[in-house]
Design a protein that fits this description.
Shape: globular
Number of strands: 8
Length: about 300
Amino acid sequence: MKSMIALSAVLAAAAMALSGCASETAGPQTVAASEAAAETRMIEMDGAQIRVRLEGPADAPVIVLLHGFTMSLESWDGWAERLSGDYRIVRYDLLGHGLTGPDPLARYAPDERVEVLGRLLDALDIERATLGGNSFGGLVAWRFAAANPERVERLILVDSGAYSIYGVTENPVPVPDAMRGYLLTVPLAGVQASAMQIYADPARLPEGRIEQIQQMMAHPGNGEAFVGHLEEFVLPDPEADLARVAAPTLILWGDEDRVIPLDHARRIEAAIPDARLITYPGVGHAPQEEIPAETAADVRAFMEGSDQ
């Protein structure tokens, strides 16, 4: 494993997961402002209160977006801004993240998150949807698609977790003390250092976004949940499950991703029967955040079937 600073980026890989910024044109929204701009619900599930945001026409095709580890639904602000005019955009804070906060049942293992996703779709009366996910969110999305092909129309993977990295295999990696301390205290300097690793050009981040990420990470109980997540995080050989993904799949990847190697994108593309890869020069681990306009345009073309 790495030092604390490197590990704060490794979280997205060792936990396959980071994402997090808004549009390069709109600027960051405060939590209160973004809540007011869309319908937000708290969905109760076995004592947990899952924050869900819904935008766009209720009768439009549904796109469900899953953020990465330590992040929140604000990760997808740029896409929601550009796609909600024509699509029903649904995004939520994973258990132990954002304003959802910790899960009383500590359902943080990848398979448990897949189960929770299915139950959340049921609660929202969503029978079938397009799923999209960044990093750890991508891992949950494609695992759900492999297990529930009848419920997934299309799949969008953004610098997604899949293959073993940083020593994580079918067995978890012990959480280093430095990482544990970082997750439990969330110092601003640590979040800033992590951003330097995640984004190829941190200057693309809107003013105030790093502080917003820190605010979400520091929500009561989230730090303990992050540690619990890492203690259960595994990356078994994904080949057989990736081969079971039946949905047409769009893979988006920053070619300067320092968290998950670009080679993983090509391996995922080869493993999923109907997949296409788009890479972005000069972009890091979260393309939907660094270049939301370009990536949202590629998603729109994919949804319209005009990306071939």
